[in-house]
Amino acid sequence: MAVWSVKVLIVANMNFNEESQMMAMEELLGEDQAQAEKLKRTLRAQRRRRKQPLLEAVGPAVLPAEEEAEKDRAGMAAPAAAARAPRSLPPVPSTSRTSFAEFSIRERMREKLKAARSKAESALLQEGPSPRPRHLKSLRQRESETRWDKESDEDESRHMQEDESQMSSRVKFCDSVKKLKQKSHVQTDFPSAEEAYNFFTFNFGPEPDNIKDETKSKKKSESNQEEEEGEEQESIVSHQQEQTEDEMDEEDCLVNDREDLFIIDQMARDFLVVKPADYRSYSERLQKEREILFTPSILTVPMSQKVPENMQPRYLEDEGLYTGERPIVSLSNQNILENRILRQEQGKRWFGDDGKLLALPSPIKQSSTRPPIFSLEEGIEPELETLYRKAMKPMHANQYIVGSRDPQGQFQLDIDISGLIFTHHPCFSREHVLAAKLAQLYDQYLARRQQNLTKLLTDKLHALRNAVQSSLDNSGTNVPNPVAQQSVTEYKFVIRQTRRLRDAEQEKDRTLLKTIIKVWKEMKSLRDFQKFTNTPMKLYLRKEEVDQRSDKKIHEAEIQAEINELLEEYMEEYEKKMEEYKTELQEWKSWKKAQKTKKKKKIKQSQDQEEEEAEESEYGEEPVKPIPPKLANRLEVEQQVREKAVNIRRKPGESVLIPELSLTGSVTPNDLCPRAEVLRREDVKKRSVFLKVLFNTKEVSRTVTRQISSDFRVHFGQIFNLKIFNWPESLKLQIYETMGLSSTNLLAEMFIPVPETTVLTGRARTEEIEFSSNQRVMLDHEGVGSGVPFSFEADGSNKITLMTSGKVSNSVSWAIGENGVPLIPLVSQQKTGIPSALKNIDAVASIGTSGLTDMKKLAKWAAETKLDPNDPKNADLMQLIMVATNGDACVPGFFRLEQLQQEFNFASDEELNRSKRFRLLQLRHREVAEFRNYRQVPLLEREITEKLFENYEKRLRERDVIDSKDHLDAHRALVAKYLQKVRESVINRFLTAKHHFLLSDLVNEEEVPSLGNLGLSLFKLAEPKRPLKPRRKERKKITAQNLSDGDINLLVNIIRAYDIPVRKPILSKLQQPSRSSRSFNEMFAASPSLQSPTHSIDWAFNQALVHPFVEVSFQRTVCRTTTAEGPNPNWNEELELPFRAPNGDYSTTSLQSVKDEVFINIFDEVLYDVLEDDRERGSGIHTRVERHWLGCVRIPFSTIYFQTRIDGTFKIDIPPVLLGYGKEKNLGNERGYDSVRSLSEGSYITLFITIEPQLIPGDPVREKFDTQEDEKLLQAAEKYQAECALKFPSRQCLTTVVDINGKTVFITRYIKPLNPPQELLNGHPNNSQAAAELVARYVALIPFLPDSVSFAGICDLWSTSDQFLDLLAGDEEEHAVLLCNYFLAMGKKAWLIIGNAIPEIWFNIQQYDSPVRINFDISKPKLWKSFFSQSLPYPGLSSVQPEELIYQRIDKAAALELQGRIEKILKEKIMEWRPRHLTRWNRYCTSTLRHFLPLLEQFQGKAVEDDHQAELQKQLGDYRVSGFPIHMPFSEVKPLIEAVHSTGVHTIDISNAEFALAVYVHAYPKNVLSVWIYIASLVRSR
Amino acid sequence: MAAAAAAAAPTVFLLMVNGQIESAQFPAFDDLYCKYCFVYGHDWAPTTGLEEGISQITSKNRDAQQALVWNFPIDITFKSTNPSGWPQIVVSVYGPDLFGNDVVRGYGAVHVPFTPGSHRRTIPMFVPESTSKLQKITSWLIGRHPEFTDPKVVAQGEGREVITVRSQGFVTISFNVVTKDMKKLGYDVSPSDMQNPSVVSLTDGIHNH
Q1: Which InterPro entries match (chain B) (predicted)?
Q2: Count of Cβ atoms closer than 10 Å to residue A283 Cβ
Q3: CA-CA distance, A1398 to A779, in Å (whole number)?
């Protein structure tokens, strides 16, 4: 399309082109102007007349016809286009069956054409008034424009050419024009714009004949008119005329026989086009717009469009990858963008996997990093205030900088540039060249004359000769003196030398003089020839007359002396040569002789081949026969000497010529010079020069720009004072020449030597430094140019080429300071490397700093300066050079990341591994459990003991080794290991999670108060300041960091207890007769003093009482309360126990993992009378205090730590059998408690426990865990939780929990009916209640292990029931879940209640033995809020629990073995605890107890007491037995030991006490073991 | 004996820091007091001196600078076996707001200078921002602006990504640092080109003023 449009433009111009061309032709043609004039005048009028009707009439007339023609094609063209085709085109060629597209292009073309035509039309109309300038323009335009065509439209034009053949003769004009054009321009065979124009504009319809004539005449008139007007411009057009000269002839004939050169009528018709107003309907436009335009919708793009097909969007963030925050873009804009992108090809690749546009994280910082500006009260801000600071000289750390050590180091280099003389310049005229040459020669002459070497040498020669003469005279008189002889020969040698030198000098003088004269002559002739002088140079030859005779005499004497000397010399030479000759001859002769003999031998041998070879070799070696030397002839020598003398010396008697050059000549003024010379002089005037001074390749200053004077001298006379800091490496001058106003070009550069330190200002000599430039300049005036050969001869032979050259006179010196101190950087000041010959030694000084990086340069320099490779100073440099020159520094063929890492490595890996300290640091950094908070890693290796790592290494080693020693049971050991591993992995998981922070971890922020809260807080204002029932106030919490041992205490406040077992009166008959077994009686007897009156009433009822006290033991520290009385004692005492963290580490994590338990033991204090004799009773009291363990409450420290305080009433864990104790049933009259007590089966104690100071409990991890739950469900759960929390902030509400794999699981998935062990069910087939109890018991037997302990209190993990059973350990949730599941399986209604309590297993009862205060009627929506409601129906979540639990068979043998082992261990322990006493074991009792234990297990410790008691009494009549069975689920031995220890049975210190210990292990399915320990102490009663 | 052994072959190096929390620039606030504490690594232990402190309340100077001067002394000595975890001083500034509520005005931390000598440090202070506009308004109303749960947060890099802070004010602290045995244990903290560190640090101090 572009091509087309260009064409159309051309077409527009074409009219004028034609015309102008025609005009040009006519101009040449029509010589008879008069005729033309006449014709023209008439025609002009004619034309004007004709034009008007044509313009009006032709258009409409032609239109219909055209439309007809158009219609033919319109049939196949677009109907819309048909309307806009006012003119028919040349018939569509048959070959081109245009496609629709093509056609539309043409259609468009036509439009454009039309526009162009109308333009042309208007232009034509204006032609009359001012056509002229257009002609010129169009002429030029055509030239260029037609050329474009040639390039572009080859094909099309060829096409058209084919068409042409079909054209009628009417197109002749076009042909002729074309021909003409082809001639005038390049003779190519493709058509030009002309044809294109015709192609588009020509009407091929029928045409009236008269038009031809009209046009013809009109054309003529037009051209005539133009001719006339164009006359003035003839000169301009003449240019074109020349061009077209050749084509003249052809044009002639063309013009002559043309029919219609200009088809004006057609044009007129073209210009007038009438057509309907162009209107496109709105809908059509909309249609069009819709094709091009696109309005992106603001609606959200469906996800399916954005992600690849059949793919789900993938959210990287949900997968745990960090995605960064996207920049904020408003949703509508985002939608628009997405819609827009989707319209594009491959739009989808802009979308990520998550269906969002790919975006980098928002780069915008959240806060401004610019510091705030504080304004003073006065307007100017201090930061913006301008302060004056004295300029400070920067200190240079570079040793190559002069005076970096010396603060006053100011060094100055004065550079005096006085002027510039060109010895050659492009603007030199020939005369100048000669003048320069002459000047040069003259300078040379002057210099020589000043030296006057000839004279010097001549004098020397004379002196020498005299010396020789005198010595010869002496020797003549005296005996020949060998010393004198020697000196004579030496003299002679020197004479010879000197003479030769003198001759050379004389010759030089002579030739110089000659050349001077010759050049002067040339110059004179040149001046004559060119008839002007350019230079004021004049040479005078001053003749100095000499005394002819004396001169001749001297001359002759000289010649004679020389001849003699030469003769002598020759004689000597001759003798020498003669001798040489003789020896050589001798040699030759001997050789010849030998040869002959050889030959003879050879012939004898007569072997051809060898002979030949021999001969060959002989020929090669044959020496030449020496030639005897000739004796020198005196005449010849004389001849020689005289000839030479003529050549090199002035003739004797000839006057001495002394040339004198003066500048006194007058230069021919400009007006007398020819034009070329004037141009030259003007050119010289235009030129000016300046110099730049470069110091260390940096420009420091430049001279003023001065014009070049006519004698090519430039005077600057400027002195530059360079204050230098850097050591001068180079001084350079650059000569720049400027021409006129614009161009500045570098003529030449020259280096100035840095002056020696002795060169000071004032003493420095002005030196002239030559420069030259290889610039090539050619000038079009008299100037000879430079680098261009020119000649002085007329015929141009003997060419010489001169380069621009010249001299700069300058002086460089060191300046002298004010006090006369030269400002020179002292050499001694340079520390190293820059001694006096610094150029040679210091690399930087000589090649510059940049050179140091250039290896080649450096190496070259090193080679040049012959660095001493052994000098340690040069060691590194040499190494560098070695590397560089050896090529070792070649680029390696591989790419290495962090190739400098090696350099930065702090220590090698082996070293790191070997070092204990690094190891310790590494382990600590990795937060390995043993070293997690290790403090003060010793600095020195030797301080780290191997012991430190022992534990860790042992753990590593034993990770896979199962140690059954501690566990007594292989399975349990396995489980323990497994647990350990789970624990480790979970801990690691949480340790990493701990490093993720939430805002709430870091920032305390007040919640936005809701309206309700606000109301409440308003209420609070009205609260009494001192309430009657004060509440415990929150104490300040302490972070654990700064604590140490002894800082933390455990506060246990023991308030009261209920229903403590009381002593039973002994009813046994066996006991009564025994005197000494009156312990109870005795005790009762002793007690009245202590007893309150109320109890004395009890006494009347013969009821046994109790004196309980509480002992709290924690971390083996024991504290006890005072003794209270009765079964419902009230102590209200506060006990303080010190707390010691493991390893002295009080960090949160460490505290969380404290496994210690607080034992709260209740004892009965029993007083025994030890009096032997009743008679002494009056005088003294001898009683022994015994304590009898009644029960205990165990509270893990972790619970206290997490709850921060424990406040409540707890059930005392009382052994099922307490010998000598029993519950008082329905004996108590206190009605108030009846209802409670009847329900409760045990004893209770009210406690308050807390830690002082209060520690901040570790926060649970709120890491977002992976989940497989439905998103909707989770959201609902969260909402539910939030709602619940809002109502009861103190109550816990759980909807989701974390399973053992660390995934979030919806809580109800844990609840599923599961089959309890079949054995348990079989036991009570009829009694479901009993079975349920049994099941509950089974569950209770599974050891309790809080998550907080196993997982360092980080979180709560819920394991499924099968996992729980496998692990045989778990906390309350697992127990509860399992039990719940069992009950569900047994067809009971069961719920799971989640509360916060000490982890007693009380909930097993609660499921059916409901706590009073909870109403379990879940159908009442008021009381129970259901999670699943109508709005969120229960989705039928599948359970995570297994389908069925598989139980292992009971392993009785293992249980038996375990039983034995436990018993043994416990016995050993008890003995160990009693180090001061002998521990005796009562075997009889033990066996009795052992029999009894299974019974206990069977009845679950109920309702066996009395029988048992009786039986015991029966069997052990002689002993006072106090003891009890302990029942525990089995997990490890350690808790068992702890439990036994806490009872304090071993503390009895009666000397004759005996002990009995029995253990029974009952195995339940799945390896659940119930352990019974019966421990008793026996005191033999007498 | 122990002292003699230590002198012969030191196993720890000591860092004595004294100086003072000189002044603060909080142009918008008045009547401020500050608290400081030190944060240090596992291998560090304070041997003597106060690890934490709380200053008096000071009012603005009337002059143009409007400095709040505390001149609250710091004096503490650490021993350490490892320069990692070099002590940082954490300063937090508090003061009453419009309604008299005690509000935090800035947190800041800076390492105790490594080199012995006199040093002056100006710490830019910042406070955590409320999470939302509403929070901001309510916190202003009830006078309880967000605070760090533990000011020591500002001395560590962990977890900073979750908070937004606003800068306000500066606190200037001067330190005089003395080290012992560091060079003996192979930690050379003085710049290599200093021949005479004591002289240089003196001039250094002058420059800082």
Answers
A1: C2_B9-type_dom
A2: 8
A3: 114
How is residue A128 written in tokens? Answer: 């009359």
Q: In the CATH scheme, what is the code of domain B13-203?
A: 2.60.40.150
10-residue block means of pLDDT along chain A (1582 residues)?
Answer: 41 45 47 55 59 47 45 44 44 46 60 67 52 45 45 47 47 49 49 61 52 48 49 47 47 48 55 74 85 81 77 76 79 86 79 79 76 59 73 58 50 82 80 82 83 81 80 62 73 82 84 85 82 78 78 81 81 84 86 80 57 46 65 76 76 74 76 79 82 83 82 82 76 83 78 77 78 77 74 68 82 77 59 41 50 61 64 64 56 62 74 81 78 76 78 73 54 68 70 71 71 65 66 58 66 83 57 37 38 39 67 81 82 83 67 74 77 63 75 77 75 72 53 43 79 65 54 70 61 60 63 66 63 71 56 53 64 67 63 44 35 41 48 51 60 76 82 77 78 71 58 67 74 74 73 78 73 78 57
A936 to B80: CB separation less than 8 angstroms, yes or no: yes
Contact between A1055 and A1246 under an 8 Å Cβ cutoff? The reply is yes
pLDDT tops 50 at residue B84: yes
Closest to A1237 (Cα-Cα) out of A1249, A1227, A1250, A1248: A1227
Domain spans of chain B?
13-203
d(CA A278, CA B208) in angstroms, rounded, equals 83
Residues in chain B within 8 Å Cβ distance of A939:
11-13, 81-82, 185
Cβ <8 Å between B149 and A1003: yes
Residue A1236 to residue A1209: CA distance in whole angstroms: 13
Query: Does A325 contact B at CB distance below 8 Å?
Result: no
How long is chain B?
A: 209
Q: How many Å apart are CA A331 and CA A490, to the nearest integer?
A: 114
The Cα A462–Cα A454 span in angstroms is 12
Beta bridge partners of A1254: A1037
DSSP state of A1157: E
Restricting to B residues 104-133, those with a Cβ less than 8 Å away from any Cβ of A are: 124, 128, 130-131
Asked if A1005 and B164 come within 8 Å (Cβ–Cβ), the reply is no
The β-bridge partners of B108 are B91
B94 at interface of A, judged by CB pairs closer than 8 A = no
The pTM (predicted TM-score) of the whole model is: 0.39
* Half-sphere exposure for A488 (CA within 13 Å, toward CB): 17
Q: What is the pLDDT of residue B167?
A: 92
Can you list the alpha helix ranges (DSSP code H) found in A1399-1504?
1403-1406, 1452-1473, 1483-1499
- A954 neighbors A930 (Cβ within 8 angstroms): no
Query: Using a CB-CB distance cutoff of 8 angstroms, which residues of chain B are in contact with residue A934?
Result: 42
SS (H, E, C) A331-390: HHHHHHHHHHHHHCCCHHHHECCCCCECCCCCCCCCCCCCCCCCCCCCCCCCCCCCCCCC
Contacts of the segment A700-706: beta carbons below 8 A, 24+ positions apart: A703/A417, A705/A738
| Of A1057, A1128, A1126, A1133, the residue nearest A1087 (C-alpha) | A1126
A81 in helix, strand or coil? Answer: helix
A1213 phi and psi, to 5 degrees?
Answer: -80, 100
Instruction: Give me the pLDDT at residue B108, please.
Output: 94
Q: For residues A825 and A836, is the Cβ–Cβ distance under 8 A? A: no
What pLDDT score was predicted for residue A42?
58
Pairing of strands A1266-1267, A1303-1306: parallel
Q: Are B45 and A935 inside 8 Å of each other by CB? A: yes
Nearest to A756 by CA among A765, A748, A744, A747: A765
A254 close to A179: Cβ distance less than 8 angstroms: yes
A374 touches chain B (CB under 8 A): yes
